[in-house]
Each structure stands twice: as C-alpha cells, then as structure tokens.
Amino acid sequence: MKEHIQALLEQTLSILKQQGKLPAELAPRIQVDRTKDKAHGDLATNLALLLAKPAGQNPRALAQLLVDNLPESELVAKTELAGPGFINFFLDSNWLGSQIDAMVADDRANVPVAEHPQTIVVDYSAPNVAKEMHVGHLRSSVIGDAVVRALEFQGHNVIRANHIGDWGTQFGMLIAHLEELEKENPDVADSGLSDLEQFYRESKQKYDADPVFAERARNYVVKLQGGDTYCLTMWQKLVNITLQHNQAVYDRLNVSLTPKHVMGESMYNPMLAGIVEDLQQQGLAVEDEGAIVVYLDEYKNKDGNPMGVIIRKKDGGYLYTTTDIACAKYRYEQLKADRVLYFIDSRQHQHLMQAWSIVHKAGYVPESVSLEHHAFGMMLGKDGRPFKTRTGGTVRLVDLLDEAQERASALLAKRDTDLSDAEKAEIACRVAMGAVKYADLSKSRTTDYIFDWDNMLSFEGNTAPYLQYAYTRIQSIFRKSDIVSDANLQGKVIINAPAEEVLANKLVQFNDAIKSVADKGLPHLMCLYLYELSGAFMSFYEACPINKEGVSIEERSSRLRLCAATAKVLKQGLSLLGIDTMERM
Ligand code: ARG
Fold this sequence. Notes:
Layout: H1 2-18, E1 32-34, E2 43-45, H2 47-55, H3 59-68, E3 76-82, E4 86-91, H4 93-105, E5 119-123, H5 135-153, E6 157-161, H6 170-184, H7 196-209, H8 211-225, H9 229-253, H10 269-281, E7 285-288, E8 291-300, E9 306-312, H11 320-333, E10 339-342, H12 349-361, E11 370-373, E12 379-380, H13 397-414, H14 421-441, E13 449-450, H15 453-456, H16 464-480, H17 498-507, H18 510-520, H19 523-543, H20 553-576
Parallel strand pairs: 5-6, 5-10, 10-11, 12-13
Antiparallel strand pairs: 1-2, 2-4, 3-4, 7-8, 8-9
Helix pairs in contact: 2-3, 4-17, 4-20, 5-18, 6-7, 6-8, 6-9, 7-8, 8-9, 10-11, 11-12, 13-14, 16-19, 16-20, 17-19, 17-20, 18-19, 19-20
The structure holds arginine.
Arginine is lined by residues 123, 126-128, 163, 165, 324, 327, 342, 344.
C-alpha cells in the first residue's frame, strides 16, 4: 500500500513538472507512513512540507495542488489536508475487503514472489565439534532459521551454511582420548558418547596432566593436518557423533538444518595456503617475526599504529580469520552468492569486519555483494548475568528443551479440556518448543535478553502460547460454524464496523512483516506483527458476533472470511518462524 501511494505521488509530481507547476529538477525521497490515529486516515505523507522550500511555495497550497492532481486509485477512498501541509489518505474499504478475499483464496495469503530471486547464503547455528550445543547456539539457530524461511518463501535461492567448528589443534587431544576409550570398548563411537562436554573435559584433563598423552596429542595434530588416514578417520567419527547430537536438537526445535548443510571450517583448510600466498603477492600481507600479518589502517592499536591481523602463525598454523577470508571468497566465487548473511553473536563483530576488510582489499568479493553480520546479544538469566546452570556451568540446549517440555506439560495438565493424554503430550511439545523459540525470536536481537520461564509459557502477552491459542480459537469458531475448509466460506468481505477495518488493515500488512525478516533479518518484527494481529482479532471477535441472532447472512459470511484470513496469516506467519500451530489446545 505504501508503495502504491508512493507511486501515485510520483506520478503526480511528473504531471506537475510537465505542466511547469513544479521545477523539473525536484527529486524528493517520497515518504509514506502509517498513521497512529485513524482520525488522520490510514497513511500520510509530508511530501508538501518537504518540497515547499525548494519549490518556493506555501506548503499547504502545495499539498492542495498535489491532491488536486492525484490520479484516481481504487485504493484511496479520500484524502485530507492536515496540519501545516500533511496529506492523509483514507483507504477504500471495498478495496480492503477485496484484498482480504484475495488472501483467503490464495495459498500464499497473497504474498508476492520476489521479482528478482537472489542467491543468498545464510550462515547460522555453527556449533563446535565435540562440544554440546549451548544456549548461545539457540539464538543463532532459531533466528537464522526464521530468516531462511522468510527468504525461501519469497522465492530466493537460499543456501544454508552450518559453519561448524570442526578444525583446530584441539583435535589432537580428542583423537588421543577417543583412541584410549576405544581400547576399552571398540563400539564407544557408535554408541554416540552420551555426554560430549564430559568427553571434551576428560580429554583436556589428560592433556594437562599427562605429558605422554600430550605428546601423542600434539603428534596427532601434525598428522591430521598432513592428511594421515588414521587421524582423519578418528576425526570423522568425532564430527559424525557431534552431528548426530546436533541433529536431535534441530529436529526437536524444528530448525530446518540437516547434515547436508554442513560447510565447516575444515572445508576451507585446503584453500588457506593459497590465500596467504596470494595476499603476500598482492603486498597486503607481510612477514613479521615469522608470522604472516595484514596491517589494517582502519583499525588502530593502542599506540595509534595500524592493527596487525595474523593470518598465519609462526608455527605455520592458520587462524579463524584466515578461514573466514577463504569462506567469504568461496561463497561468492563458488556459490555465486548475491548476499551472505552471518548470524553470529556480537562479540565476533570485529573479527568479521577485519576478515571482510581483507576480502575487499584483495578483491575476493566485490562491494556489490552484500556481506552482512546480523549480530545478536547474549541470553541472560533472571539475575541479569549470563545464563548458567545452578553450579555455574553452561546450559546444555537439550536440558533446556527437556525442562521446557516438562513445564508445558504441567501447565496443560491444569487446563480443563476433553483432550486425551496422547493429544496433550503432543500439544505440550508444540507449546514448549514454540515458547522457547518465540521467547528468543520476539526480542530485538541486537540486545541481550533475559530468559524467563514464566513469561515465555504464559498464555497472555507477546508469547507463542498466546498466538497458538488465538489460532485454535478461530478453529473452534469454525467448528461451531460448520466450516470444515475454506471452500465452505460463502459471500465476500464487507467492512462496516471499525474493529473489522482495524483487523483488515493489519491483515494486509503481512507482506511488510515478511520483508522485515527477509531484508533486515529482524524476526521480532514478525512476532510483533502477529501479536498485534491477534490483538486486533480478539477485539474484532468481541465487537462483531458471528453466530448470534440478528447477524445477517452477509455479515456472518464476511466475518467468517475475516476469521479465515486471520487463521491463514497466523499459521503461515508462525510457520515462517518455525513454530507449529494446532487445531485444539
Ligand atoms: N563456530 C563459531 C562459534 O561457535 C561460529 C561460526 C560462525 N560462522 C563463521 N563464518 N565464522 O562461535
């Protein structure tokens, strides 16, 4: 709608320029905004105020001139001048009604497909091998996945990249430890190492305490890097075990990653030597006390000198930065990315900026390809400190999900419904996973957020259970109204009551919410949208009865259609966040 009004104003300007009523060189950025107060119409523009000075005219007279020359449009019922020179637009309720009918009739709720589909790589989740996924990876996984879903829904070619930490010197001690465990039990790897954290801890303890073990571990590092078959096999076992653990979490959380999306650090290993050599040849990297370093002018040291970023250590080892240089290059050259989105916590911002600065200087990725760091803050406990277990350890994601499920089951058990135990268990699972994900998705991702069980599982407020409940409520209206599918809906949408208009206005903003997620990587705007939509629905349902005496057939049909459009958008919107809905709860 905004775009449509913008286009109308654009046309008006060119008409007035042609007639010589406005200077030809005017090229303003036309801004159209939603109004806060319905008394001021639905949309408004300050265009006349913006142009008054350069056009040398009185703003109010100019606003009138614009309005007088505005082309006819089925969207706009009327316009009004307001204040010193604002123009307010009132949407036509017939048009609004026809939009809702179109949403009901269309599988995609009338959301358009991208005109120019892009290839978009999304880097998210990215846990480390032989470590349990922890709460930090929850944020990256669920936020990244929501953005992936929105982009795919728009019709882009999305490549999911799970940049797991599967390379580095720690593999020496991990292999040495696995070897010892296998001596006692040859099937230990197949059994899946129930606790990865413990495995990692034990390896580290042995490494620190036993010089013979440490020597063997260091030897394995060298061998692994040299491509030794035995070490590679052991390494692969560790990777596979970790992937199994992670997959269980993804499946439970309905995160759309699978093992085929893994593009870990190790994948870039064969490219690193060539990159370091090339950077040296280009004169960007220099040797400094045996290490290879790139000095970046835009980053200063404490003493004001350009900051040095090491890309190869003295002992020949490569670094996280080197890998991310190779990775960006690969995503552009091999994957043909137009956009690359990285969902990584904000502490890694400088790391990425440095890697990309080198990437750009070396000409590996053109500036026209957008490399985007979508950073997020930390998950905090109720005390405002980093979220930890009672004993101060990192919270394993599996434990968190188990607790969510227990809490949701307890909550649902208290509700008085005629659902069977099996149904209740299934619903508890959907509520629990929805609540955990939504708690994360609904917060502006750039800041830290406080994890609070009671809040996220509440049936009131901006929570998943509230939205899931709003959806089931509509399903129950349909059951009571003998509507089995959208095909049973009759008539058309006719907007009369103010609550109907508010709801319809919200419904047609669904595409804007999708765009916020896809363009800006901000799922919390979709959450806010769905929350406001549910609120508008609840008010509508209170003000506009459906199955009550005195309601005409036309009214009833129209209202049921508004219900159907709301249910469709809620289901689709939640599914774009990776959250399930259900018919009853
Ligand atoms: N494995 C890293 C971590 O757990 C995140 C990797 C993110 N992706 C990247 N291209 N650096 O912190």
